[in-house]
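In response to the reviewer comment on reproducibility (Comment 2.3), we provide here a single inverse folding case reported in full, input and output, so that an independent group could reproduce the run without further information from us. The structure tokens appear first.
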């Protein structure tokens, strides 16, 4: 069977579909060791924070100096500079459409975030808060109760906004500790295809806003 043009098209479409299914995301953590931040592309991980120390560059060998040339006679002094022309006043950037245009751009941003919330997958959300109570046990107990109340209020909102695969949010009360300790981690992923589709959708709507603004002028 000979290779035809439609087979080439199918292969290209298959490659694009596979690329669109590659997950990208962020792995962020905070604890006693400080802030850790990495970017994920498929099975590869790129560490962002803390930055890896750069290898010291080897000093370059000094080149052998050539025979010294006779010093050139000093150049004649340049004529005094003419007074520079006054700079033209810079035009201020105006947002398209005034207040109405600003509101439309805000609506576009909120709509894009709304489309993103169910497509962004939270692989892991961990938040452990240890409340120290050695100084004032009664106040620590009150903070512990308020922490559980806040978790009960936040959890339903998180479930509405994101698809969370693994969630572990809980406070702890330790009367042997004097200060509060926080241990948190967040891993989010989204496929390349979904991110490109959202960017394309938002870009088309933004161009429509600009086009309508130009027609109105």
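Designed residues, in position order:
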């Amino acid at each position: 069977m000979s290779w035809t043009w439609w087979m080439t098209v199918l292969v290209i479409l298959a490659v694009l579909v596979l690329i669109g299914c590659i997950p990208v995301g962020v792995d962020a953590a905070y604890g006693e060791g400080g802030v850790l931040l990495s970017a994920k592309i498929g099975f590869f991980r790129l560490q962002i924070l803390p930055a890896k120390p750069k290898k010291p560059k080897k000093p370059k060998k000094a080149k052998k100096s050539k025979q010294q040339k006779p010093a050139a006679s000093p150049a004649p002094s340049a004529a005094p500079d003419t007074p520079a022309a006054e700079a033209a006043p810079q035009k201020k950037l105006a947002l398209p459409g005034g207040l109405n245009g600003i509101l439309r751009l805000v609506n576009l941003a909120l709509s894009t975030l709304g489309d993103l919330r169910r497509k962004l997958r939270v692989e892991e959300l961990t938040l452990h808060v240890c409340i120290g109570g050695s100084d004032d046990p009664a106040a620590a107990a009150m903070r512990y109760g308020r922490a559980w109340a806040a978790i009960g209020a936040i959890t339903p909102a998180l479930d509405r906004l994101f698809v969370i695969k693994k969630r572990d949010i809980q406070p702890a009360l330790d009367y042997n500790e004097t200060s509060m300790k926080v241990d948190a981690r967040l891993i989010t992923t989204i496929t390349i295809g979904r991110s490109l589709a959202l960017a394309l959708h938002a870009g088309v709507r933004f161009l429509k806003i600009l086009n309508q603004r130009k027609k109105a002028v």
